[in-house]
């Protein structure tokens, strides 16, 4: 029987304070408690009510503890009677269905505690009432694929949206596999937002084409605009930045990460008016051109809340010193070139400047850093949590080791492979708090002397038990090393290994690396992202399908032997969201084996595989809610391209779920079946 | 290593470049890839580019790749280019440096005159040093490829321009020390 159990302090519900939005502390606890219960009942959540109750008890919150340990189970209206009864039998709980009687404001406040998009998406599918409450109170919206849904639809559903994140091109666009004018234009999103959501405050775009026209519109259409983050975007110049600087009153954040920005002059920075004092974060490290340094110094001086400043390569040490003098409270700093012309004085001034900056926790830049200047930062190394030296090829391994020894609080380290196994051993000794390590190749063409091998990785794994995120470019890897790493670090959520020579086997046993990666997926139960490399057979995919149940993104290159490999993954990884494959022998049979799977995923990319045009057509015919796009790049010598047969192998295919049907901005080399 | 086999293989394409992937092939990477070829000269950016790499491999982001190319050019040894041979000129005691194009001058005399006029505001007298003259306050020195500080004027002009990395106008006692170090 389902009984309605009264919450302990039921008089709180009818208290007029609740309806006016001022909520007492006990209600806050209730709201939080119910939000955890919602998460528990919603699919794919990871919250354990029992552990939550223990935490609450430990924190002295006896009210919640009694509720949960006192066997009150909250029933979500969509659960069928059968499910409810089985749960009751299973857990021997008393049930209550109180939530359907809560007023909307109460439900809305409970939803406030749901921070992840996934949780909020889930509660909105429970019933119509909840859908409406959730939609009107949603502030942060995430669109993982700009072509999955129209901007109008998003903004009609979430009229109160304050923060929008949109992603455009597929990930392999980073490696030149997607033609330049494929799509991903940001303008429709900005135009629609200007019409429908003028209260927009934050916009984050990744891998999209952003024109100066878009930036101008953005600057003028949103009076409360506070934060612009552009990652791996292109299509704009410093003119667009000048518009943002000029018109966005109250701008707090301008964060440009790894964008291709055309340099139309240095004046954009001077466009920040004298009245602009609100900047908290300014990152223009990716800009190639000169910047008006005196304007920058004045800007930094008047923005007292500035905490993150990342300078570009054009900024010399002399300018850096002046800037640091005006911004001693910086938490994140990108140093600029870190080199100077007039030597001896600069070093002393730099030392003094850094001495005063006690708050710096995150350092990057060092583009042209000479070893002598590195010593100036030793005073702050011991408080650093993030250090990015991956753009500093001039730093030699011995200077690196000397510096790393001081960085015992480091949590995130990005370096070049010139650090060598020896340098990694030093990191393993010094940085016990390390959670994320990225080792990039210093020689982009992958030729030359071996820099890091499996030894460095093993050293890191044994010295840094908290390691959970890895990107590692190396010349070789062994199964034994991977098995050791899997044992030492079972907490990996991101594991990306790139052996520079594709299809390279274990150099000691000459075997494929199936067992090594198998050990990783078996041991790391929370693995969300995996990139494979080296010689791999279908077996590794069998392991992945079997063990990687939390995997969301898988990148495959030059791997596998037959269709079976891909099928193992599609049938096994129930949380898979993004699958990208290149140069692997998977064909139509694999593609068409489990077509329903693709609607549970964001996207599938396959290039230089064995999928044919016929296979793509068949997929498109079976699954009308997918866009099956084929990219046909013409080669001059090729006459067959005009009317290729169904047997014709497809070079690049991109499949994604969508509510909009074929996109209307597809260039002529993109065919949607 | 299979590298010599590849050299003798008949194929289309320029010598030194791998054959481009054919349309019908199952893999775009040849089985015996020479990606680990140690004989390849690392410093020669143009040779690496000619060696046609697999598109998008290794998977390094375009932004990072472009930055590396820019950085490699800077850290490479400066070769004399047709477009000009700029070297920095520092003068002891001057607050900033200058840059001059050595290709513009035909010989040491012209160079000294140019430096004289450039740095005249910082010095009281003539910079040009004549043989045996001990009334000058300054000596012009340069840093060569090996990093050594050399007195300007000893070697033929062409040899000088090809090995000079940096110029330094030294004053007083240090300068006289150089004079005697023959």
Automatic annotation (TrEMBL), chain A:
<dbReference type="GO" id="GO:0005634">
    <property type="term" value="C:nucleus"/>
</dbReference>
<dbReference type="InterPro" id="IPR041101">
    <property type="entry name" value="Transp_inhibit"/>
</dbReference>
<dbReference type="Pfam" id="PF18511">
    <property type="entry name" value="F-box_5"/>
</dbReference>
<comment type="pathway">
    <text>Protein modification; protein ubiquitination.</text>
</comment>
<dbReference type="InterPro" id="IPR001810">
    <property type="entry name" value="F-box_dom"/>
</dbReference>
<dbReference type="GO" id="GO:0010152">
    <property type="term" value="P:pollen maturation"/>
</dbReference>
<dbReference type="Pfam" id="PF18791">
    <property type="entry name" value="Transp_inhibit"/>
</dbReference>
<comment type="subunit">
    <text>Part of a SCF (SKP1-cullin-F-box) protein ligase complex. May interact with auxin and auxin-responsive proteins.</text>
</comment>
<keyword id="KW-0927">Auxin signaling pathway</keyword>
<dbReference type="InterPro" id="IPR032675">
    <property type="entry name" value="LRR_dom_sf"/>
</dbReference>
<feature type="domain" description="F-box">
    <location>
        <begin position="102"/>
        <end position="143"/>
    </location>
</feature>
<keyword id="KW-0539">Nucleus</keyword>
<dbReference type="GO" id="GO:0031146">
    <property type="term" value="P:SCF-dependent proteasomal ubiquitin-dependent protein catabolic process"/>
</dbReference>
<dbReference type="InterPro" id="IPR006553">
    <property type="entry name" value="Leu-rich_rpt_Cys-con_subtyp"/>
</dbReference>
<dbReference type="GO" id="GO:0010011">
    <property type="term" value="F:auxin binding"/>
</dbReference>
<dbReference type="GO" id="GO:0009734">
    <property type="term" value="P:auxin-activated signaling pathway"/>
</dbReference>
<dbReference type="GO" id="GO:0019005">
    <property type="term" value="C:SCF ubiquitin ligase complex"/>
</dbReference>
<protein>
    <recommendedName>
        <fullName>F-box domain-containing protein</fullName>
    </recommendedName>
</protein>
<dbReference type="InterPro" id="IPR041567">
    <property type="entry name" value="COI1_F-box"/>
</dbReference>
<keyword id="KW-0833">Ubl conjugation pathway</keyword>
